[in-house]
Design brief:
Elements: H1 2-22, E1 26-33, E2 36-47, E3 53-54, E4 61-62, H2 67-80, H3 102-105, H4 110-115, H5 126-129, H6 134-137, H7 144-151, H8 156-160, H9 165-171, H10 191-203, H11 207-216, H12 228-233, E5 241-242, E6 247-248, H13 258-261, E7 264-265, H14 267-279, H15 287-294, E8 298-299, E9 312-313, E10 318-322, E11 325-334, E12 337-344, E13 349-355, H16 361-375
Antiparallel strand pairs: 1-2, 1-13, 2-3, 4-7, 5-6, 8-9, 9-10, 10-11, 11-12, 12-13
Helix pairs in contact: 1-16, 2-10, 9-10
Amino acid sequence: MEQTKYKLNQITDYINELLSNNEGVGLSVAIVKDSDIIYSKGFGYSQIQPVNRSIDGDTVMSIQSISKNFMALSIMQLVEKNLVSLDHPVVNYLPSFRTKNTDESDTITIRHLLSHTAGFPTNLGIANMIAPNVKEIFSDTPTEFQEALDYYNLTEEEISRIETREDITKWFEKVELDYPVGMGWNYCTDAYVILADLFEKVTGCEWETYLRDEILTPLDMNRTTSDSQLVEKDKNCARYYLGNDKIETPFPINPISAPIGYLYSTANDLGKYIRFHMNKKPEILRSNLIEEMQNPIHLVSEDWQFESDVRSYGLAWFTDIYRGYRKVEHGGGQLAVRSLISMVPELNLGVVILLNFDGTIHHDICKKIIDVFIDF
């Protein structure tokens, strides 16, 4: 007990020092060991305007691309029910799905979408550019919004026509594949909207409703939601601040694209979530399917390696080796949002870190936590 207390005090001291040196705004951390959340703490502030509000383990924050893991888990539950197969072509479930390379895209499977090995380019932009406040996001200069459209080769009329997830699926007919299906890796965030469309066509159920009833409620994740309006009204929710001047950024809102990065959660709720993945609770998903999600499928591209030549991607999980230990994780980020969930299975250790400012200190904190548990 004393040794654990010493470890956790070390972590607290490190984060306090790191946060003060980086002049950040706020962050929340949860640590899972074995079956327990042994550490839940906030540092700094969830909001600094109009007054400072302290952040804690129950502060609701944007989790960005960690959302993809929930989409993947939903698909895996359909696999368990024999409603879909990972290795069946997407067109079996979504006949409207195609790309410019129709013969090739007809061979794209659900596994390819989940693992970012479908051949899609990485910078499509369509799923993020349909955010209802996109013009506010790109408003630093009078031309910034148009510059963003030009960068993604999109038009304002084109994005205004996207009203449903099916519209995203059909939009992919303009996409030209970057590499042969299954023979490479590009992180394509937009693909996870196609997965949501597929999920809803197969089940006849809105994905958000299913997520609440079949995943969040059974895991007692009662402060996790896709409802941005509910979050913004919550007294204990975060706002996001960019740069040294701590400029508040537009609130992350994008209902159609919720599966790619527009869920909201807390450090404590995500602690419950990774505890499930670590302990492989069969009432949520069979253990062999949980393991399949965590198994590496393809090495990531160079810009995602983080100085590791073994960093790979499975089904909505990055996998890596850190100090000889296998690490399974997923992060997220946009403007002033940063999020990370990480597990070290051999240590029965899980880490959650959520930030409301930009930077990379969430990775530094995660490494420090793992170091502490390796070294003592």
